[in-house]
Task: structure prediction
Amino acid sequence: MVTNSVRPLLLSSSNDGIARASQLLRDGELVAFPTETVYGLGARADVPAAVAQVYAAKGRPAVNPLIVHVPDLAVAQNLASFDDDAMRLAEAFWPGPLTLVLPKRPDSEIVPAATAGLPSVALRSPDHPVALALLRATGLPIVAPSANLSGRLSPTTAKHVLSGLGARIAAIVDGGGAEIGVESSIVATGKAPRLLRPGGLPLGAIEACLGTDLAIDAGSDHAPEAPGQLASHYAPRAILRLNATASAADEVHLGFGSVPGDLSLSQSGDLAEAARRLFAALAELDARGPSKIAVAPIPDQGLGRAINDRLRRAAAPRDQRHG
Ligand code: TXA
Ligand code: MG
Result:
């Protein structure tokens, strides 16, 4: 435990900060750290109490499995069985914003709660120098869901993590703003490769690598075996209205491209910029206390797929919130 210190410890991404963070992780504590997609909430994947703390701190339903983070493919191969497609994808895109759902090896040390009891495990190698240094220094598989309260906006800065999770966690490593801004794309390989969540790696790049179209199974994200196809997630406090080219009096307006809005995701219509700014922009507009946020149309291509997926979930009826 961290004693005689104010929680959470705010650590820099210096060697000292990473060493301190790695020791806390090894001690079974929760440590938030930067990745190229969003900030993750790290904990040992091989210790039941550490994994249980992750679910408790986030208020996350136990049916929603976690992503295990590894420094490289060699470590990942100790934890899961890679078929040819999985090998091809990992070699092409790791480290990077791609999570692979694979059969968990029976001899892996990952505890059942980390995968919500599933026989599969989600693995990812993040493309961020601080995350990779931390994973190497710790030398253990680390679960890392996005470092937000369940159902809320994902964090792209250390400040977001602090305001969302605060004293529920032991430490936050500050690595600046997340470069991509939306979570990893999730792919399950096997007989027919499936996209389980659109994310930071565009679908077209994944399909080009595999030389085949992916089945889209993204409705199951955040509740792999549950109904609720559009469960509320990524939600600000305000109600969201999508595809809004103009706003009403009781709305603030999030713009994109030719729709200026009160704040724009990208005035030039750049989807990478829009993804990077998405969660921070929603948080900023939400902080103005509106009852509704109107959101400009976003093209459903490239990173726009991931942006629209997050926006649809943010706009979903709130009584369906879980995950
Ligand atoms: O970019 C990211 O992936 C970030 C950063 C921190 O790495 N992490 C992240 O984790 O987004 P999280 O917990 O917010 O999302 C994990 C999702 C779950 O909601 C679930 O849908 C899926 O991954 N997942 C995990 N294990 C799975 C499994 N065995 N089968 C199917 N889906 C799984
Ligand atoms: Mg999340």
